[in-house]
Design goal:
Elements: H1 2-67, H2 73-81, E1 88-93, E2 99-106, E3 113-114, E4 127-128, E5 130-138, E6 142-145, E7 148-151, H3 152-155, E8 167-170, E9 189-191, E10 200-203, E11 209-210, H4 222-233, E12 239-249, E13 256-271, E14 279-280, E15 302-308, E16 310-315, E17 327-332
Parallel strand pairs: 7-12, 16-17
Antiparallel strand pairs: 1-2, 2-5, 3-4, 5-17, 6-10, 7-9, 8-15, 11-13, 12-13, 13-14, 13-15
Length: 334
């Protein structure tokens, strides 16, 4: 009996040793899996931050290029500000005309490697982490917005210069703003056919933008005009990119416009109809108005303001171009 007990104790002692080895191996596996999960999460987080920095940097440098001088230094600052550890760097490539390519990478450790990983404990080595963004800049080739088009002939926009002179643009001013037959159409500016309430989609180079004739604006504009009014009264600015046409053909509902580009108008006031939100700061008694700027008379229609340079930030596959009328478009291409 004593011998049997001794044999059993000997076997149990061996099994306890085997269990310890198994537990040690399993712990190593679990720790390794946990470290890998943490490292992978860190890499994805770092890459997302670098992508944000690349996107912001590409847009900022593209905007500076459109404004006159490409400022590549903007990319480094935005790469850092979009990184949690403020340890990122950016390289800028301007070799493609009207495009900016920004490549960001981490500078945690040496070069572009991410070194503070758990995997380093098993000599896995650092990991290269980076991101890239491409932004294009130019003048827009299409747009969607308030359904009003301006005449290039009536308002001298071909040069693209914008003096910020406050002016009044009146509906059907006559002169050069008539159709080929001499019949008055929506001359100095004109309402466009709507795609949705108070919104028209326009494209440069298409001579098929339809006219919505009549003295009053298309339906559905009251909410937009109310928002404009509220913004101005609260001290804000309303800047609206309007499509500009050089040729108007036909008359009435059959009239069409050839869109050549987009000009941005900072709006001071308007008279698109009578009463309510369709009239705002359109008389000489209103702040900043004069008798020359005021739109008077029951059937008179006008919009008052000044042309300004304007850059819109968007996203898309390309930046098509029309005539440069001071309105720019900056887009992430990829």
């Amino acid at each position: 009996m004593r011998r049997l007990i001794r044999v059993m104790r000997s076997r149990n002692s061996g099994e306890r040793g085997a269990a310890g080895v198994t537990v040690a191996i399993m712990m190593l596996v679990l720790i390794g899996a946990g470290a890998m999960a943490v490292d992978v999460g860190q890499i994805y987080s770092e890459r997302a931050q670098l992508q944000n920095g690349a996107d912001a940097g590409a847009l900022a440098v593209a905007l500076s290029c459109k404004q006159g001088t490409c400022n590549s230094a903007l990319a480094d600052g935005l790469a850092n500000s979009n990184s949690n550890d403020a340890a990122s760097m950016a390289a800028v490539d301007l070799s493609v005309p009207t495009q900016v390519t920004v490549t960001t990478s981490t500078k945690n450790g040496s070069s572009s490697f991410l070194t503070n990983l758990f995997a380093n404990a098993i000599n896995a080595g650092p990991v290269t982490v980076g991101a890239q963004a491409v932004a294009g800049y130019g003048v827009p080739g299409s747009g969607s917005g308030f359904p009003l088009a301006l005449s290039d002939n009536c308002f001298n926009l071909t040069s693209g210069s914008q003096t910020a002179e406050v002016q009044k643009m009146s509906y059907k001013p006559g002169g050069t703003c008539t159709g080929p037959s001499g019949t008055q159409i929506a001359g100095g500016w004109g309402w466009l056919d709507e795609d949705t309430p108070c919104n028209a989609v326009t494209h440069v180079g298409t001579n098929d933008m339809g006219s919505d004739p009549g003295n009053n604006p298309p339906s559905g504009c009251a909410t937009i005009l109310e928002n404009w009014k509220t913004t101005i009264l609260e001290g804000g600015e309303v800047k609206v990119p309007f499509p500009v046409f050089d040729v108007a053909s036909g008359t009435g509902q059959n009239a069409t416009f050839n869109i050549i580009g987009y000009a941005t108008f900072k709006i001071w006031g308007w008279k698109f109809g009578n009463n309510g939100v369709y009239e705002f700061r359109n008389t000489s008694a209103d702040p900043g108005m004069t008798s020359a700027l005021a739109c008077t008379g029951g059937n008179d229609r006008c919009v008052i303001g000044q042309f300004v340079k304007f850059a819109a930030i968007g996203s898309g596959s390309s930046v098509p171009g029309g005539v440069d009328l001071g309105t720019s478009e900056i887009r992430l291409i990829k």
